[in-house]
Amino acid sequence: MKRFLLAFAFCLIASLCLSAQRSYDNPIISGCYPDPSICRSGEDYYIVNSSFHYFPSVPLWHSRDLVHWEQIANVLDRPSQVDLTGAMRYSGIYAPTIRFDESDSTYYMVTTNVSGGGNFCVNTKDPRGGWSEPVFLEQGGIDPSFYFEDGVCYMVSNPDGCIYMCTIDPKTGKTLSQSKPLWGGTGGRYPEGPHIYKRGGWYYLMISEGGTEYGHMVTIARSRDIYGPYEANPANPILTHRDQSTQSSPIQATGHSDLVQAPDGSWYLVCLGIRPQAGQNHLLGRETFLAPVQWGSDGWPIVNGTGTIDLKMSAHLPAWAPLPQEDSVERFGESLLGAQWVHVRNPHQENYEHTSDGLRLHGTAAGLDSTDDSPSMVLRRQRDINCDATVCLSLTSAAKGDEAGLSVFLDAGKHYDIFLRKGLFSKKIVVRYRLDNLTHIEKEVRVRGAKEVLLRVHCEAENYTFQYSLDKGADFVSLGSMGTRYLSEEVQGGFTGCFFGLYCFSPRSQALATFRSFEYNRF
Q: Quick one: which of 137, 186, 135 has its CA closest to 165?
């Protein structure tokens, strides 16, 4: 009996430890990872995000505790799955939804390619094992989402400012019923991002309104019948930072949410938000945040008790599974790049080599200002307001005017660059600011004899500072600083934040840039 009681006590303590009140930091996924959608299968959680004109597309994340997330893949990693020809930062892949259909143990990701093709879905039995070719869907609009019940797949999207629903065969894309309007929201502009859930005999339809800016909000309605009519929550919006109480919050533009239920019955919400850093300007893009959800006695959800979120949060989390700390230095070699690295549009793979010396880029005539082709460039997101990004590179087989370097890249014609350029008799390190019709060369420094150079971008809230080193990082020399706000979405528009791009430009397509390493440090 004593042994039984001790075993019972141990199990009880373990259970309490697994489901404990814990503190965590928001955002849970930092950098340009907007429009989060989440699903759970057993103890595994998965999140997908929008990717716009970047390839591979739709980053896929895995977690065991809702707080610590690892990017395990990109859902769309083959050109046959997504064509991004001519896509810019305001087009491409919008607002994916991920769902797990328990009836046949299949994961589905449904999204929109606004550059061509419209709504489509892919599926897999194993999220880590690759996804199917796309199946295109007939109901239009953007932000499609699936809801599975009793072997039926319901699809919702917003074709004309209202949320519509039909039933489909997700394996073929065939529509099985006529599209019917469900709800147009509470009057906010751009009702979008719809998701359907069921709890306590009610069907809940959650959407976003107000536009993905400072007026963003999440609203919800419910019905006893999945086809409606839907009644709006009297306490709408259930999440927003548009009000006076949050006008000074370091998090703004909260919205575009999705709900998930943990194995212990608790509920959580993921949403996007921004972190302004230079006045009202943000540069990291829209990021992914987490909040606990309680259900009131009236059956309506309450987000974090207040309908707002914070950078420092606590929640009664169902588990705790920290990940190993990421290495700050990535040394390129013969192995392929990790899932965090992307290209602008579909890349020309022949321009990328993984060698024992590092990542080799073959320069092409498609430069940083190209609006249709894919430049010879790999990128990863800036994920912190205060950080350093440093590359080690060499430039060979170059003709006059060829260049390779490190770009703070928002989009074609909107980037700050520090690079190595070949002159007639020598090379120069150059700092350049490019803002559409305005191009400014901040400084040029002639370098002789150095086979490799280190180029660095030092990032702070108000400025990017550009530095170089010719002595393997013992000393860095600053060449100039430029205001961050000119690359913000508030100034330039679009839907993506800033990326760090490693590139090579060669009009005659003969230059070779070898990048030995990329180092990223937050402070």
A: 137
Identify the segments of the chain with pLDDT beneath 50: 1-17
In DSSP terms, which residues pair with 287 in a beta bridge?
273
- Two structure tokens written together for 197: 């859930």
376 neighbors 359 (Cβ within 8 angstroms): no
Nearest to 381 by CA among 242, 501, 217: 501
CA distances to 84, 183, 185, 267, 482 from 221, in Å? 35, 8, 8, 17, 46
pLDDT of residue 298: 97
Q: How far is CA 339 from CA 141, 307, 327, 342, 404, in A?
A: 29, 33, 15, 8, 23
Q: Indicate the helix (H) or strand (E) that contains 9.
A: helix 2-18
Between CA 28 and CA 105 the distance in angstroms is: 27
Q: Where are the alpha helices (DSSP H) in 229-284?
A: none
Cross-strand partners of 111? 120
Sign of CA dihedral 171, 172, 174, 179: positive
This prediction's pTM: 0.95
Find, among 220, 260, 219, the residue nearest to 242 by Cα. Answer: 219
Instruction: Please give the Cα distance from 419 to 119 (Å, whole number).
Output: 40
DSSP class of residue 175 equals: B
Neighbours of 177 (CB within 10 A): 13
- Spatial CA neighbour of 260 closest among 475, 418, 113, 67: 67
- Residues marked as catalytic: 35, 192
Positions of E strands within 245-319: 252-261, 267-274, 287-295, 301-303, 312-317
Q: How far apart are CA 461 and CA 448, in angstroms?
A: 34
- Rounded-to-5 percentages of helix, strand, coil across the chain: 5, 50, 45
d(CA 20, CA 315) in angstroms, rounded, equals 8
For the segment 365-389, what is each residue's pLDDT rounded down to a tens digit? 999 999 999 999 999 999 999 999 9
Q: Which two tokens stand for residue 361?
A: 């880029």
Report which of 68, 188, 80, 54 is spatially closest to residue 134, judged by C-alpha positions. Answer: 80
Supply 170's token pair.
């997700």
End-to-end Cα separation, the chain, in angstroms: 55
Q: What is the DSSP letter of 15?
A: H
What is the pLDDT, as a whole number, of residue 451?
87
Contacts within 8 Å (CB) and 24+ apart, 466-475:
466/416, 466/418, 466/431, 466/442, 467/418, 468/418, 468/429, 473/390
Please say whether the beta carbons of 293 and 199 come within 8 A. Answer: no
pLDDT score, position 19: 58
Task: Give the three-class secondary structure for 7.
Answer: helix
Quickly tell me which residue has 């006529």 as its tokens.
178
